[in-house]
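Input/output pair, single chain:
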Amino acid sequence: MFTIDSALSWALIAGYTVGGSFVLGVCVTLALPADILTREMQPIPRAGIGRVVAVVRNLVAIPLAVIGIILLFLPGPGIGTIILSLLLADFSSKRHCIVRILSHKGTLRSLNVLRKRFGRERIVVPAILR
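Output:
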């Protein structure tokens, strides 16, 4: 049965989820290095513990990507959550996906405004994308 208490509980859970993902999105945006689009990414070793690390990172990244897609339609930082999931994931076209999302003018402008507000450098865009 649906009661006021259960509605309040769901509202609190939703509020904490949206608020937490917002804080997480801001933290990830501020933690990104300014040269993320221009520097070479270090590959994860594929032998021994490196393989385990890659599997665990992918197991964390997949639910984050799903949450990010859901947050595109709900209040919350969907793009930030998707970027975080891409940064965690390990797949062959990861670099291309990150560059494509971050080089979109609206996304890049929003990220740089946030970074400027907190005293961080603007994200450098490769000459090929200008």
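The two ends are 56 Å apart (CA to CA). Residues 58 and 91 are 9 Å apart (CA to CA).
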